[in-house]
Design goal:
Elements: E1 2-7, H1 15-29, H2 36-40, E2 49-54, E3 60-62, E4 79-81, H3 104-108, H4 111-144, H5 148-176, H6 178-194, H7 196-202, H8 204-218, H9 221-232, H10 238-267, H11 271-290, H12 303-312, H13 332-336, H14 339-369, H15 374-404, H16 409-431, H17 437-451, H18 458-465, H19 470-499, H20 503-523, E5 537-538, E6 541-542, E7 549-551
Antiparallel strand pairs: 1-2, 2-3, 4-7, 5-6
Helix pairs in contact: 4-5, 4-6, 4-9, 4-10, 4-11, 4-14, 5-6, 5-8, 5-19, 6-8, 6-9, 6-11, 7-8, 9-10, 9-19, 10-15, 14-15, 14-18, 14-19, 14-20, 15-16, 15-17, 16-17, 16-20, 18-19
């Protein structure tokens, strides 16, 4: 199926050069098209350069047509025209027959949902391996005599590694694809989790290093998830896909917080680390044997589903085996020169601050403020994450419905992000007024549940403004978010020691939610942002002043 793009011919190119190039390109085209019907399509039309790109073939055929005459008689072989199909911003593929949207039963049993389910399991393991230390930190602090501020440093050791890996990991994801990088990431963080008991018995520094290694490996998880969702899901389903994957992320928190005390009581303080680590190795085996990088490489996918994905997916981000054409060194300066990038960085930073403060300190909060024992404190902390998993999927479903109903992508993302930040900001204020653990858990559940709407805001927005750089863009925002999480996690411990109250820190977090929501609404967009300066396509026409003609 061919897509034609009309390109403007600028006045700066002389008719002589244009005619010479015409003769050369037409002579080359005759090698591929020899039938009379092909020559009919080559009849000159003034001032027009169509480019035909076949999706079934990598051949880029350029046909130049002009009505001028040769002025100086130079051979057209002295000039060559260079163009890349990757430099074009294509509109969606058009089909003679529009495929119907799948029913819910077809969607939920499709191969792409199986991929999303595997991503959800990976993210569940990812978060379970994180939060197990949030539970283990209580008995570890008692046995080693750690203060709350030092306990915060121990918990933040995970974030030291998580700080350095997202940018490099995102670049690897853009270059190699999410499937392979995710497999290596899960294998590495599962190994580090499995070895944590040995490290804890060896020395404090070994324990900190092993938790930092978990952070390094887990830094690739969310960029890989975004990459696989962009490859497997059309734009009208991506919020739901992210909702499914992030539901696993939140269930991982609930599983880690509820199972860890039980496993510790049965098999010792380090039992959860061993079990979660072994589960990760099992996941890698299933992931590599049951999934593929792209839909067209999958042997189990139906023809209907493959056609539906390929024809609905944005062709501005053709994710196929040519992913390696992406630049190894991304254009960081241009990425950081756009305000939509900073809106994502601010949103991710606030999201991570709130997430890790709640994740790391809520068991301690219930134990410190309401004097709840460790097992019950973990249960009170786990309930909100289960609600967040369900709310995240419902938010994604609503987001996709808004877009299909005609609401712009930009407005949809701002609605989701506003709920995801203003909601927790208000709920945390309510949490400071709670007088019982039940009421506190209810406010916390509301805060975390509304927070999940941001997954259909900034998290999906990463794929939309720069699909070819979604991995590295996610890495940039994740790095900023991790730095914010370190400050929040460590700062909470020092704040409580100095002030003697969690409530003041919760009010500060609430204020930051409000500020971040306003910033995102002012500067975010759901449209694709042009980060590639060398070649530009505007309104379907090529800027010919940047079209290179070099002597052979």
């Amino acid at each position: 199926m061919d897509s034609a793009i009309a390109l403007r011919q600028p006045s700066s190119i002389s008719s002589s050069k244009l005619f010479q190039t015409t003769k050369f390109l037409n002579s080359q085209l005759l090698k591929f098209q020899t039938s009379p019907s092909s020559f009919e399509r080559l009849k000159p039309k003034p001032r027009c350069l169509p480019i035909n790109v076949s999706r079934r073939s990598s051949l880029l055929r350029i046909r130049l047509r002009h009505g001028s005459t040769d002025e100086d008689g130079r051979s057209p072989l002295n000039h060559s025209v260079k163009a890349s199909s990757n430099d074009a911003h294509f509109s969606a593929f058009t089909e003679k027959k529009e495929l119907q949207a799948p029913s819910f039963a077809e969607f939920i049993t499709s191969e792409r949902v199986k991929v999303a389910a595997m991503l959800a399991l990976a993210l569940a393991l990812c978060n379970a391996d994180r939060v197990v230390m949030s539970v283990a930190i209580v008995p570890l602090s008692l046995s080693h005599g750690w203060t709350k501020s030092f306990a915060g440093i121990v918990q933040s050791s995970f974030l030291w590694g998580y700080l350095v890996s997202p940018i490099a990991g995102g670049t690897l994801v853009d270059y190699y694809g999410g499937r392979i990088v995710m497999a290596w990431g899960v294998a590495l963080w599962s190994l580090a989790t499995f070895l944590t008991p040995w490290a804890a018995e060896t020395s404090l520094w070994a324990l900190l290093a092993m938790r930092a290694m978990v952070g390094v490996a887990e830094g690739v998880a969310l960029p890989c998830m975004n990459n696989m969702v962009a490859r497997w899901f059309p734009p009208t389903e991506r919020a739901r896909a992210v909702g499914i994957a992030m539901a696993g992320f939140q269930f991982g928190s609930a599983i880690g917080l509820t199972l860890s005390p039980i496993l510790m009581s049965k098999s010792g303080i380090f039992g959860p680390f061993v079990i979660f680590g072994l589960s990760g190795f099992l996941w890698v085996l299933v992931w590599l044997s049951a999934t593929s990088s792209t839909p067209d490489q999958n042997n189990q996918i139906s023809k209907y589903e493959l056609d539906y994905i390929m024809n609905k997916r944005q062709t501005s981000f053709l994710v196929d085996n040519k992913t390696k054409a992406t630049k190894v060194i991304p254009p960081f300066r241009r990425l950081l020169s756009k305000m939509p990038t900073w809106s994502l960085i601010v949103a991710n930073s606030m999201h991570s601050w709130g997430f890790f403060v709640i994740l790391s300190w809520m068991p301690v909060y219930f134990n410190f403020v309401f004097h709840v024992d460790l097992r019950h404190a973990a249960w009170f902390s786990a309930v909100p994450w289960s609600v967040m998993a369900v709310m995240g999927y419902l938010a994604g479903l609503w987001s996709d419905m808004l877009i299909r109903g005609g609401t712009s992508i930009t407005l949809t993302r701002k609605i989701m992000q506003s709920i995801g930040f203003f909601g927790p900001g208000v709920a945390l204020v309510g949490l400071t007024t709670a007088k019982s653990p039940v009421i506190a858990s209810a406010w916390l559940t509301l805060a975390v549940g509304l927070k999940s709407f941001s997954h259909s805001g900034f998290l999906v927005n990463l794929q939309e403004i720069a699909p070819q750089y979604s991995g590295v863009l996610h890495g940039l925002s994740n790095t900023a978010g991790t730095f914010a999480a370190i400050v929040g996690t460590v700062g909470a411990g020092f704040f409580v020691e100095l002030v003697g109250s969690f409530q003041g820190f919760l009010l500060l977090t609430s204020l930051m939610y409000f500020v971040a929501a306003i910033f995102y609404n002012l500067f975010s967009t759901g449209e694709r942002v042009n980060f590639d300066e060398p070649v530009s396509l505007r309104h379907g026409y090529y800027d010919f002043s940047k079209f290179s003609m070099n002597r052979a």
